[in-house]
Amino acid sequence: MVKNPRKFVKRKQDEQTAEEMIHGILNGNRTILSKVITLIESSASRHQEQAQGILQELLPHSGKSVRIGITGVPGAGKSTFIEAFGRLLCDQGHRVAVMAVDPSSTVNGGSILGDKTRMEQLSRHPNAFIRPSPSGGTLGGVHRKTRESIIACEAAGFDVIIVETVGVGQSETIVRGMVDFFLLLALTGAGDELQGMKKGIMELIDAVVVNKADGDNIKSARKTMREFKQILHFLTPATSGWEPMALTCSAVTGDGIEEIWHMIDEFAKKTKSTNVFDQRRKTQVKEWLLSMIRDRLETSFYQDENIKELQPSIEAEVMNGTVFVQKAVDQLFSVFQSQQKKGQPQSCCPKNI
């Protein structure tokens, strides 16, 4: 008689409470920090509710970092630069969190590049935390929950937050609205691509760094740096009281990396002394509020059952040319607003007394 083989049953771990996760983050537990960011990025309503409760408790412990946004054309070496820059800061005693936002796969929505694997040495440093997140197609090259993740990282004791965007372009400038210092990483010999990039991004940056200034490329890198200095001289500074700077560096050799940190440190000291730093943070929170209101209204509109029912026929009429676009919009909003009014509580007092 053959005995039935014993089945291996994986023991389900008890889920941590919100209080345990808050305590873990405040004590710098990176594993719990990752779990909380996963909750923050989740679209499940129960996760969102739990994440918002945690963030409310973490909020008083946040805001004490320097937030640095790093963008640049593909191939500029953003990940290599961040690894060299982050290792320098970690070795100096700083705690560095990197929000590395990857392009999203059109197949499964996940990250394509995997920045954590591209920053292998930094990811192993005890003072570093790297969180790759898919952009989800969000304009601005940042995850829609990056702001919330920054709060969690700051509460965990990270005093330098680096936000790496997917790339640079007209839609990438949203990163300016969530960082203190905005850095553009550039290359030599970018030609026409560089010219197209300058239009939208140059007016938003606090510094431009020409990377890969090593070997035979040093001379051309310095020439490109001088060209950037001339351009910056004729533009209105993105930050009041700060003149945008142009530098060179080599993420491979480490040359120029420490000078970049000195520049950012000087920026923070100068803008804090003039209250520009704090005022920017307040403005960013206000913009965040308005952005979330717009997102909530958009979600509410498209999730309305009457809109779901009516929208296909309206779209067909517009595509067939039988209804003008503006009239179609008016019809959809008329239905949406009428349903909103039906859901409003009646006035406690009659109109005619």
Query: Can you list the strand order of the major beta sheet?
Result: 3-2-4-1-5-6-7
Radius of gyration computed on alpha carbons: 25 Å
Helix content: 40-55%
Q: Low-confidence stretches at least 5 residues in length (pLDDT < 50)?
A: 8-12, 104-116, 137-142, 346-353
Structural class: alpha/beta
Mean pLDDT: 85
Question: Major sheet, described briefly?
Answer: 7 strands, parallel
Q: How many strand units?
A: 7
Shape: globular
Order of SSEs: HHHEHEHHEHEEHEHEHHHH
Taken as a percent bin, the fraction of beta residues is 5-15%
With helices defined by DSSP (H or I, 4 residues minimum), what is the helix count?
13
Distance between the termini: 90 Å
Describe the structure.
The chain has 353 residues and is α/β, with parallel strands linked by helices. The protein is built from 13 helices and seven strands. It has a seven-stranded parallel sheet with strand order 3-2-4-1-5-6-7, sandwiched between helices. Strand 6, helix 9 and strand 7 form a beta-alpha-beta unit. Helix 2 packs across helix 3 and helix 12 packs antiparallel against helix 13. It is globular and about 65 Å long. The relative contact order is 0.09. The C terminus is likely disordered.
